[in-house]
Amino acid sequence: MKTTDYQTASEIVIFGALGDLSRRKLLPALYQLEVCNLIHKDSRIVGAARQEHSLDEFKEIVLESLQSFVKEELNQEAVDRLIQRLVYQQLDFKNKVSFGNLYQALVNGNKTRVYYFSTPPAIYGDICHGLNDASLITDADRVVMEKPIGHSLESSKVINDQVAEFFKEEQTYRIDHYLGKETVLNLMVLRFANSLFTNNWDRNSIDHVQITVAESVGIEGRWGFYDEAGQMRDMVQNHLLQILSLLAMEPPADLSAMSVRDEKLKVVKALRPINRDNIKEKTVRGQYADGFLNGVAVPGYLNEEGANQASKTETFVAIKAEIDNWRWKDVPFYLRTGKRMPIKHSEIVVHFKQQPHNIFKESYSELPANKLTIRLQPDEGVELQMMNKIPGIASQMNIQENKLDLSFSETYNNERVVDAYERLMLEVLNGNQSLFVSRDEVEAAWLWADSIIDAWQGTNEEPKPYAAGSWGPVSSISLIARDDRQWVE
Ligand SMILES: NC(=O)C1=CN([C@@H]2O[C@H](COP(=O)(O)OP(=O)(O)OC[C@H]3O[C@@H](n4cnc5c(N)ncnc54)[C@H](OP(=O)(O)O)[C@@H]3O)[C@@H](O)[C@H]2O)C=CC1
Ligand SMILES: O=C1O[C@H](COP(=O)(O)O)[C@@H](O)[C@H](O)[C@H]1O
After folding, report:
1. Cα–Cα distance between 318 and 171 in angstroms, integer?
2. Catalytic residue (one of 40, 151, 239, 351)
3. How many domains does the chain divide into?
4. In this structure, are 125 and 219 located in the same domain?
């Protein structure tokens, strides 16, 4: 049986096919699947966008995207196969009448249609109406929605309702691209395929957990979009809460979408609310100021192109999150994420509890606790900090802290790290929802995030400045130091 035998031949329709996401991520992802023969031989890729283009011009744009955004040398056979699949349809997504043209383009095609909304969410509703009026929605179709889904719980409900009018939840694939990252997927393997961790993954063994998602980039010309969102909506409400959920969830009964999503949802629902009463104690928000990155001067957030000097938007967030359930009582999860930090570096550090009694006082007055570091990106891997005897006759019990380091690139012979969008695109084509976010999860995450945003506004909590190229405002150090702990640098 071939890997695509369980895939139905599909019309993969990308709305916004000429946009940034499509060119940088979606088309290269489809190319990589093509290289691996993971797209059904009869599937077609339909680019839908506002501008007039001939098919040949669209093929040229796709080729340029691959040349610009695929890191490896292109495989010409795969390029040719991908190009053969292309169809282009000019369309104004807000004009229902023009969907008749899309109908003509799809009418003799495959029965299953995958509609990828690579557009601002504000027009998802228009697209759905256009598709419906043109009789282009059946139960066999799927819809893929990009983040952010809304700006708040209320606005996310509006968007979800607009789409739910035409697509059932089991047809809806909400992207959080962190769920497609190899290392994020590996969290489940680490936790549930290794009894060592499965059996020591709770308040009895773990002291606290740190999750850091640091980015060295700034706003990258997206000031207008970003200023409306800030790091809380852009990164915490989605990516960091997804990582937290996978780390903290109970073992799902199996890997089905329903089992995994239900367990993740329970974690988000159990997050202790942060509100105006505890906001100062539990959170820090920051905004990068002028600074240096790798010795090069970089502008602060307010000096970026297009900036409004009065902006109070945060580019850094640190949070002490607590989960009110049996497993995690008194085990804080410290989250921090920011733009313009010294390096791009995302990792989880699980700090285990100290031994109750120390018989090695001659080497260590206080025994360091074990630490499990999960390097999400780059230099993907898993590292376990542990104590070991230094070999030698001179001393009977001279001990030292060492690490077991499982570097993925070394272990898997520099195997190319699959981009998250490749994984997620494949799962959509295969009709597997387990790596996508349910509506309930999105709403529970907004409920928690909205309360924090409201508390910042209600208490006039202004973002603290931090120099670009630093690890965030000094108060983020105090956030964790108050608990007699420190960030792992
Ligand atoms: N870019 C990225 O890295 C990421 C993007 N996202 C999300 O993906 C979505 C797309 O983002 P991105 O690609 O950056 O945005 P872009 O603005 O680059 O692309 C959106 C595309 O939609 C088209 N479009 C908008 N309105 C209409 C309309 N009425 N009729 C026809 N075409 C229309 C635009 O066409 P035109 O150019 O003619 O206006 C444009 O090609 C957004 O929801 C974004 O938040 C999420 C994560 C990362
Ligand atoms: O969703 C987003 O993610 C990127 C970071 O993604 P990564 O895969 O490079 O870690 C972030 O830069 C962007 O602001 C945000 O919208």
Report:
1. 35
2. 239
3. 2
4. no
pLDDT single digits (tens) 416-473:
889 999 999 999 999 999 999 999 999 999 999 999 999 999 999 899 999 999 999 9
Q: Is residue 174 included in any domain, yes or no?
A: no
Choose which residue among 235, 237, 375, 422 to substitute to test ligand 2 binding: the one with the highest number of ligand atoms within 8 A of its C-beta: 235
**CA distances in angstroms from 295 to 221, 291, 346, 386, 466, listed in the order given:** 21, 9, 22, 35, 16
> How far, in Å, CA of 371 to CA of 385, rounded?
5
Q: Which atom number of ligand 2 is nearest to the Cα of residue 226? A: 14
- Any catalytic annotation for residue 208? no
pTM, rounded to two decimals: 0.96
- 157 located within any domain: no
Is 259 a domain residue?
yes
Same-domain status, 189 and 141? no
Domain that holds residue 41: 10-146
Residues 399 and 283 in one domain: yes
Tokens at residue 229, please? 């969102």
Q: What is the CATH number of the domain that holds 202?
A: 3.30.360.10
489, part of any domain: no
CB distance 21 to ligand 1 below 6 Å: yes
Tens-digit pLDDT profile for residues 270-323: 999 999 999 999 999 999 999 999 999 999 999 999 899 999 999 999 999 999
Task: Say whether both 201 and 309 belong to one domain.
Answer: yes
Q: Which listed ligand is nearest to 417 at the C-alpha?
A: 2
Nearest of 72, 64, 86, 1 to residue 37 by alpha carbon:
1
Tens of pLDDT, residue by residue over 201-225, are 999 999 999 999 999 999 888 888 8
ipTM field: 0.97
Pocket test for ligand 2, best of 177, 227, 232, 419 (most atoms within 8 A of CB): 177
- Sign of the dihedral defined by the CA atoms of residues 265, 267, 270, 274, in that order: negative
Residue 168 assigned as binding residue: no
Residues with CB under 6 A from ligand 2: 215, 234
User: Relative to the CA of 217, which ligand 2 atom is closest?
Assistant: 12
* Same domain, residue pair 237 and 91: no
